[in-house]
Design a protein that fits this description.
Number of domains: 2
Number of helices: 4
Helix content: 55-70%
Radius of gyration: 20 Å
Strand content: 5-15%
Number of strands: 2
Mean pLDDT: 77
Structural class: mainly alpha
Length: 112
């Protein structure tokens, strides 16, 4: 009863282990195929506009962090998910690194 969906260039292919065809919602099949697609390779697969949009998301998340004292990761993960800029795992790594940098800058500025 398991169905497999995979992405082929230009089309979505659904293979089933049962003999009757499964009703497949095109949107669900497309989203599943995108989530199961091959991982991106190379150092940078984002366009310059996606990079700029990601930097704008970082700026907005930083502003929220400054005003409220929390929610940097929540805002950045939410915005990058809405705009589909990168996978959740990649953005979670970015949030971790930026939080460490933010804490380091805060500690160094409090020292002087």
């Amino acid at each position: 009863m398991a169905a497999r969906c995979y992405h082929a260039p230009g089309k979505i292919v659904v293979a089933s282990t049962i003999t009757t065809p499964l009703p497949v919602d095109p949107l669900s099949a497309a989203l599943f195929a995108r989530s199961r697609a091959e991982p991106r390779s190379g150092s940078s697969c984002m366009s310059i506009y996606q990079h700029l949009l990601f930097l704008a998301c970082v700026a907005l998340a930083t502003y929220a962090q400054t005003m409220t004292g929390f929610a940097f990761g929540l805002v950045l993960l939410g915005l990058s998910g809405v705009f589909q800029l990168a996978s959740v795992s990649e953005v979670a790594n970015v949030v971790s690194v930026l939080s460490l940098v933010n804490a380091g800058v805060t500690l160094l500025s409090a020292k002087s």
